[in-house]
Amino acid sequence: MADGDTPANEPLLSALVAGADLSPHGLYRHIRHSLGRERVPEASLEMHWRMDVFRLHQLWRHG
């Protein structure tokens, strides 16, 4: 629900929820899909997630 109003060009707030091993939470891909976001190949999912987290931190710091 937190990302229901997130514009398509902004990172998902749900990216801030990480797995126990500091990797993308298992629902990250599902949330992206549910919101109609582009599919990210499995091989690049973690890097894409890390970029979302980085962008969110930048928005928070400079917002």
Total count of helical runs of at least 4 residues: 2
Q: Which band does the percent of strand residues land in?
A: under 5%
How many runs of DSSP E, i.e. beta strands?
A: 0
Distance between the termini: 22 Å
Spell out the helices and strands N to C.
HH
What is the rounded Rg? Answer: 11 Å
Biggest β-sheet strands, sense, barrel: none
Q: Helices and strands: which structural class?
A: mainly alpha
Percent helix range: 40-55%
Determine the mean pLDDT: 91
Low-confidence stretches: none
How many domains, as an integer? 1
Q: Using the alpha-carbon principal axes, give the shape.
A: globular
How are the secondary structure elements laid out?
Layout: H1 28-34, H2 42-62
